[in-house]
Design goal:
With 284 residues, this protein is α+β, with helices and mostly antiparallel strands. Helix content is 23%, strand content 26%.
Length: 284
C-alpha cells in the first residue's frame, strides 16, 4: 500500500550517466517524508539536475503533497488541469494521436516572466516500448563553450515566445482536449542568455529551440547563426542522459539548468502522465 514504507529508510542515489541524472531508491513518495529525506532529495537534484524514482503509487493529493515539499505548485497556462487539482496537468497521448506534447528539446515555459524552478512528471499509463525522455546538462553546455563566446553571451538577453511555430504544434492536441482559454501565442519574456543558478551559483546556458526567437536588440536573421549553433551544441550526446519510463516512475528535473526532450516513437499506444511545475524566480 502506498505510504506504508518507513520514510526514514536511507536513500540510494545512483547516477545514470556521466553528465546528468540519478536514480533514487529507498523512498516512498506517498509517505509523509521527514525533513532529512526532503533535504537529501533536493541535494541530489542540485547535484544531478534530474532525479528518477521507480514503482511509486501516487494519487493526485499525494503527488501535490510531494511537490509542495519542494516549492509552490503552479498551473500550466495553456492546458486545463485536473478537476480539483488545477496545478496537475494530465499529459495524454491517445492511440490515434501522432504528435506528442512538448516533443522537442526545451526548458519549460521560458516565455513566462517567472519561469518554473522545476517539474515533476509521474507515469500512469506507459506504452510497452518507446516514449523515453532525454535530458541535457546546461551547465556543461555553457562551460564547454570557448571563453570568447562565453564573454559575448554573458552580456546578452534573449526573447522567449510561447508562439514559436514548432512548439505550438506539439501542444495543439492537448489544448484541443482541455483548453485553458488561451490561444498559445500570447506570452513573451526576456531572460539572460546565461543565468546563474540561485542555489549552486553555477552558470547555465538558458536558450532553447522551442521558445527562444532572437537576441534582444537584434533581428531574428541576425540572431539565427549563433542561436542555431547553441541549439545544436547544448544537446550534444555527452551532455545527456535518457530515461526509460515504467509504470509508477517519477522524474523531477531542475528547469534552471537542464533541458528535456520527450521522444515521440510510440504511435498506436496510449500514454498518460501527470505533471506538476514548481514556481521559480526571475532568471539572473
Amino acid at each position: 500500500m502506498p505510504g506504508t514504507r518507513d520514510a526514514t529508510t536511507p536513500l540510494h542515489v545512483v547516477p545514470v550517466a556521466g553528465a546528468i541524472g540519478a536514480e533514487i531508491s529507498g523512498v516512498d513518495l506517498a509517505a509523509k517524508l521527514p525533513a532529512e529525506t526532503v533535504a537529501a532529495i533536493r541535494q541530489a537534484l542540485l547535484d544531478h539536475l534530474v532525479v528518477f524514482f521507480r514503482d511509486q503509487e501516487l494519487t493526485p493529493p499525494q503527488l501535490m503533497a510531494f511537490a509542495a515539499r519542494f516549492g509552490q505548485p503552479v498551473a500550466y497556462p495553456f492546458v486545463k488541469g485536473l478537476d480539483g487539482f488545477p496545478e496537475i496537468t494530465p499529459i495524454l497521448k491517445r492511440e490515434e494521436d501522432c504528435i506528442n506534447f512538448g516533443g522537442l528539446w526545451h526548458s519549460d515555459t521560458t516565455y513566462q516572466q517567472v519561469p518554473p524552478m522545476g517539474t515533476i512528471l509521474y507515469g500512469i499509463d506507459i506504452p510497452p516500448y518507446g516514449g523515453d525522455t532525454e535530458f541535457a546538462n546546461q551547465y556543461l553546455a555553457y562551460e564547454t563553450l570557448s571563453a570568447s563566446l562565453r564573454r559575448v553571451l554573458d552580456g546578452l538577453t534573449a526573447v522567449q515566445a510561447s508562439g514559436k511555430g514548432a512548439v505550438r504544434k506539439t501542444r495543439s492536441g492537448m489544448m484541443a482536449q482541455a483548453p485553458a482559454g488561451l490561444k498559445g501565442d500570447e506570452l513573451t519574456a526576456r531572460h539572460p542568455v546565461v543565468r546563474s543558478h540561485p542555489e549552486t551559483g553555477r552558470k547555465a546556458l538558458y536558450v532553447n529551440t522551442a521558445h527562444t526567437t532572437r537576441f534582444d536588440g537584434m533581428t531574428e536573421e541576425e540572431s539565427r547563426p549563433i542561436l542555431d549553433f547553441l541549439f545544436r551544441h547544448q544537446v550534444k550526446a555527452e551532455f545527456t542522459c535518457r530515461f526509460r519510463w515504467t509504470k509508477g516512475a517519477v522524474a523531477f528535473w531542475d528547469n534552471r539548468c537542464s533541458q528535456h526532450n520527450p521522444i515521440n516513437d510510440y504511435h498506436g499506444f496510449r500514454r498518460l502522465m501527470h505533471r506538476v511545475t514548481l514556481a521559480g524566480e526571475p532568471p539572473q
